[in-house]
Automatic annotation (TrEMBL):
Taxonomy, superkingdom: Bacteria
PANTHER family recorded: FERRIC REDUCTASE, NADPH-DEPENDENT, NADPH-DEPENDENT FERRIC-CHELATE REDUCTASE
Gene Ontology molecular function terms on file: oxidoreductase activity
SUPFAM superfamilies, A to Z: Riboflavin synthase domain-like (SSF63380)
All copies of domain FAD-binding FR-type, residue ranges: 21-121
Protein name: FAD-binding FR-type domain-containing protein
InterPro entries membership: FAD-bd_FR_type, FNR_nucleotide-bd, Riboflavin_synthase-like_b-brl, SIP_FAD-bd, SIP_fam
Organism in which the protein naturally occurs: Alcaligenes xylosoxydans xylosoxydans
Length: 244
């Protein structure tokens, strides 16, 4: 039994009304663990056949109530089959991680979206993706959708072996992983790598941990990268839950 089906979490009348009006009922078709700490979840719904999706867009999944939801970026969307896939990085003890760890085929959930969040198609030039383990799904989505311009990824990660396993599972090639350390030395290593990837035709997407995005944005600015070539979206921040 998951948080989505636990009768002790029965939503109130207003929550049920909002769910019925604005959310899509979806079924879990598949739930895999490509590496410890990661879940690859396939959702299906007839309504997904009518949806229009692009890489970087988000969906929100209700955690037992329309007022408590967690945001995910689908890694692909099959409108013909009415299916989408999510790669979830399960860190922390919040409701989103708990749902992803426990969810199983046959479970149902309520989904809002897809809707706008980040638009990689607006990046000027060839893409460099800076982020962390929560950015692996976006890297896959961009690589599949813009096959001729797959991003070069520099990602800080907490567990190298697990992140490598997920990268291999997704077939990602241009991915460099930097193990996170207590003094954020991995960000220094990423900063040293950036000049070798620089060029007038480069655009940068920064996602993942908010403090890292802020620091690497300053690094890029100091290296002369125009702000118009930088796009950023924080997926999480230490001590905060449920970033949209």
């Amino acid at each position: 039994m998951t948080a989505m089906t636990d009768p002790r979490r029965e939503p109130g009348r207003v929550s049920r009304l909002l769910t019925r009006l604005f959310m899509t009922r979806a079924r879990v078709a598949r739930a895999e663990t490509p590496a410890p700490g990661f879940r690859l979840i396939t959702l299906e719904s007839p309504a997904f056949r009518e949806a229009s999706w692009r890489p970087g867009q988000k969906v929100q999944i209700a955690m037992g109530s329309a007022f408590v939801a967690r945001t995910y970026s689908p890694i692909e969307w099959d409108a013909v089959a009415g299916r989408t896939r999510l790669l979830v990085c399960c860190h922390g003890g919040g409701p989103g991680s708990a749902w992803a760890r426990q969810v199983a085929p046959g479970d149902e959930c309520d989904v809002f979206g897809p809707r706008a969040s980040l638009d990689p198609g607006r990046v000027q030039g060839r893409c460099v993706l800076l982020g962390d383990e929560t950015s692996l799904g976006l890297a896959y989505a961009i690589s599949r959708h813009f096959a001729a311009d797959a991003p070069h990824c520099l990602l800080e990660v907490a567990a190298l072996a697990e992140a490598r396993a997920v990268s291999r599972r997704l077939g990602l090639e241009a991915v460099e992983l930097f193990e996170r350390c207590g003094d954020d030395g991995q960000l220094d290593a990423i900063a040293r790598r950036l000049p070798t990837l620089a060029g007038a035709d480069r655009g940068y997407i920064l996602t993942g941990r908010a403090p890292s995005i802020q620091r690497l944005s300053r690094t890029l600015a100091a290296q002369g990268v125009p702000g118009a070539r930088i796009m950023a979206k924080a997926y999480w921040a230490p001590g905060k839950r449920g970033l949209d």
